[in-house]
Specification:
190 residues; 24% helix
């Protein structure tokens, strides 16, 4: 969520007053217009407005100002912030880029969000409903299951053996009677 809070802290107060639900929020960033000693070591005060809505304040890799004053009498400050979800090992820092601000008085903030490579299947094994293969599959599984020794299950290891044998029967039978089909936009979810 990207926010801009004016000098009266209207957005921050609104989020607090409405008990805004941010349970699924990964990142909240923007111009908070709040100076605070927690993120700006050159500022001597702490603001109660700055509580982080159950998010964790992200500390930048480079400690530089985020707002650059056009007035020589005013100092540069840190008012652009980033808050990240608690206990996130992937999202834990950000960078400030003063060289990217061009004519703006604010420096952009960036955080790297890792994207895990994911395998997306393009085909799957299936048995057509009400087909001869489905009948054969069901009969073979039932017949094979009835041959399993289930009378002497006296301990966990014997139970695990029977379960493993049954799983192997189902897997082997599935491979025998199912066919490989391509997944398309017209494929059924089942």
């Amino acid at each position: 969520m990207n926010i801009y809070s004016d000098s009266f802290h209207s957005v921050i107060k609104y989020l607090k007053d409405t008990e805004f639900n941010i349970q699924n929020l990964l990142i909240m960033t923007g111009d908070f217009n709040i100076q605070n000693s927690l993120w700006d070591l050159l500022f001597n005060h702490h603001s109660s407005i700055s509580d982080s809505f159950h998010l964790s304040l992200s500390y930048p890799i480079n400690q530089v100002p985020t707002r650059y004053s056009n007035n020589a009498n005013d100092s540069n400050s840190v008012i652009n912030l980033m808050f990240l979800c608690y206990d996130s090992s992937e999202l834990n820092t950000h960078s400030i880029h003063p060289e990217w601000r061009l004519t703006s008085d604010h420096a952009p903030l960036t955080s790297t969000i890792p994207i895990v490579k994911e395998y997306i299947a393009s085909c799957k094994r299936t048995i057509t409903k009400n087909s001869k293969e489905e009948d054969k599959f069901i009969k073979k599984v039932i017949t094979s299951f009835s041959k399993l020794d289930i009378l002497n299950i006296l301990d966990i290891s014997k139970l695990e053996k029977v379960i493993s044998d049954f799983a192997n029967i189902v897997d082997h039978t599935w491979m025998k009677y199912s066919k490989l089909v391509n997944i398309t936009k017209h494929s059924k979810s089942w």
